[in-house]
Amino acid sequence: MKIWCIEDDENINNLITYALASQGFDAVGFGCYAQFEQQIKTDRPDLVMLDIMLPDTDGITILKNIKNDRRLEDIPVIMLTAKNSEIDIVKALDLGAEDYITKPFGILEMVSRVKAVLRRCEKKEKAQEQLSFGNIVMDKERHTVTVCGRQIDFTLKEYYLLKLFMENPHKVFSREHIMDSVWGESYVGESRTVDMHIKTLRQKLGTMGDAIVTIRGVGYKLEDIEK
Prior knowledge:
This protein is an alpha/beta fold.
């Protein structure tokens, strides 16, 4: 597993990466956010260890950036810092940090807490591998969808469109939000594209197609079918 540490103190950075590497982790240290930001464009860690007081960007801002990025939001983050006030700890945890370790810290405890976070996240990922809504079951690991026990073939865009709805049942999505989430922010197209995919998605879902509800003037949502 890849663990990236953003820590400007070279001695601490080396100590952390050495300790994690001795436990079999692929540990990489970064002295500033700019180095991490460059690397994240082409690679992705399984966990980030993050100092708050950095030379270029403070750790809280980096934490916000990670958790507000759809590509990175599921990466667990452990804060590793000398700031030990209750308000600092609560702020980081409320923003999505998995754990908060204050300096000075024991190496054995640090490694143990890293392993604990990874175990929790692994259990969470396994629990989220399968989504279900009514008679629709989506297996994200196998990339399959069944309706009333029968497997349905979807195009890639249809699959991700349905996945968006199933991960956020009852939530209304505008056409623009759907375009950004499924096609990407760089895609140049018309909202009519969304409408056409919704139509084919409903058709393929058969009796469950009515669960995708049109909210006039706004967009679409996945809602329970009235019996």
